[in-house]
Structure formats: structure tokens, C-alpha cells
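Cross-posting from the chemistry board since nobody answered there.

I work mostly on the small-molecule side, so proteins are not my area. We synthesized pyridoxal-5'-phosphate and want a rough idea of how it might sit in this target. Sequence and SMILES are below. Is it possible to get a predicted 3D structure of the two together?
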Amino acid sequence: MIASSGANKLFVKRDDLYPLSFGGNKARKGRLFFEEILKSGCDCVVSYGSSSSNHCRVVANLCAMHGLSCLIISPEETMKDTFNKKMIKLMGAEYIYCPVTEVAATIERTMQQLRDGGRRPYFIQGGGHGNTGTQAYVECYDEIYRYEQSSGIHFDYIFFASGTGTTHAGLICGRKKYNVTDQQIIGISIARPNPRGRQVVIDSVNDYLGESYADHENVCFLDDYISGGYGSVQEGIYAVIKRELVQNGLPLDATYTGKAFYGMEQYLLKNNIAGKNVLFIHTGGTPLFFDDLEHIK
Ligand SMILES: *Cc1c(COP(=O)(O)O)cnc(C)c1O
């Protein structure tokens, strides 16, 4: 628990401290993806993401650790020089830039060129999307559930930053696995509006379960705090980031965790929620905190 101030008890699961490549949900997913990749006999990995992508950093790091080559396809609209990008280059990954509208075609072409050259490429969807990514967050839910059992604390609400949907889907599948019915899992969208954002989460749940999730009414994907979309910073967010760092030693960033933390606070206030146990899952992105540092006054 980090704070009993405010109307609720707030707990934070520090997935940002997951012990691999600066942690976060992409490290948790990446570990599982590489178990598959190493078994598959593939010799290079292709993935995509913006220059802020934590997923691409983790993939590049795991490739370097296992001696695989790594190609990152990235939209030229987001060519900012970030700490993630600097690390990706340091790890020896190769960037291929293209306009955002040509990402799909560029992936296709790159995969074909590699195969034609006698390579065996493995493709990971952006953000570590897919059942493997979902499985990583079923395992995270296992940890949360075990903590609840051993501590006697039940979380009424779980909040986190939701992007491509598998972190969210995994938590929902975990809740279903243990038949938990008195807990709200609320993903704060960092980019996608509804109805698409929510539908992608439901699709991921269905895909993982291999059947249609009966309780899809209960999938809560909030798009109220996306501001102008991915990377767009709402007013007041740097104040929240500064306060959490200074008062609680909690580093947040403006693209993912800060946006979600801000959204969580607004949501709890707006809905007059009080006296509850609230869990915030810190999904990582520590290098982005440093990118943002100059904006925090
Ligand atoms: C990618 C990312 C998310 C979103 O996770 P999804 O599984 O894509 O929804 C949240 N927080 C951070 C720090 C991320 O890097």
C-alpha cells in the first residue's frame, strides 16, 4: 500500500520492477514470447512500434541476449530521439522507417525478403499482442490472486494503462479463471477510442478462451482520458507525475502510466468511490519517465 490518503486505500503492483530490461508489461510478455521463439528455430525477429515503444526495447534486448538479429519497423511520423530508441540501437537492432499507412505492407515485404534470403524470421505483433501476451497477464493475475489469498486483502478495483489490449485481456481471463465476481477491472485507454478499443480487448479474451466470453458487458475500457490520442499529454498530468514521484517514490510517464494514474484518480472522484481497496498495476515504461523529466517543473 502506498497511500491511505484520499477516499480509498491505494495499492500498486510494481510490474515496472519486473527483472528484465527495465521491466514493465512488455518484459513480462517478452519473456514468454522468447520461450516460443527459442523453441521455433527462428533466427531473427521482426516487430514494430513507435520510437517510444517499450515493447521494441524489450524485443531488441532479448534478441541481443540470445544472439538473434532484430528488425524494428517504425512509423517515420514518430522519429523522436528517445531513450528507448537509443537503447534499441545500442542493442544492435535495425530500424526500418516507413509512413504509418505503410506499416502493414512494410512488415509483409520485410518478412518476405528475409525468407527469400534463407532466414527464418519470427514476427511479433506491436505491443506483444496475441495469446502469448494475454497469457503473461493471466500469470500476473495469478500473482495478484495469491497476494489476496495470503494477505486477506481483496481488491475491489484494478486499474492500469490499456493500449493494444492483451494486458487487459489477460487480467480478465485471470479473473474468470478464479470465478471472481466482485471486482472491477478497468483499463484506462492511453490512445484508442471506443468502440474499437473495447472490442479489441473482447476479441483478445475470446481468442484466448477459444469461446465467446459470456460476461463481455463487464469489459471496462475507458476512453475518457486519451486526450488527443497516443502520446498526447493532458493538462495537469505533469503535476500528478511530480507528486507521485516526490511523495511516494513512484515514477510515472506521460504516455502510459501517468495517463492511467490520472484517469484512475479522476474516475474514482467522479463516481464518488470511497472506502475501497484499489490496485494500480504499474505497467512500466521507466525510460519514458526520463524522456519526460525536462517537462516536469
Ligand atoms: C504497452 C504498454 C501498455 C499497454 O499495454 P497493452 O498490453 O498494449 O494494452 C501500458 N503501459 C506501458 C508502460 C506500456 O509500455
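Reply from a structural biologist on the board:
Welcome over. Reading the output above for you: The mean pLDDT is 95. The chain is about 45% helix and 15% strand. Happy to explain the C-alpha cell format if needed.
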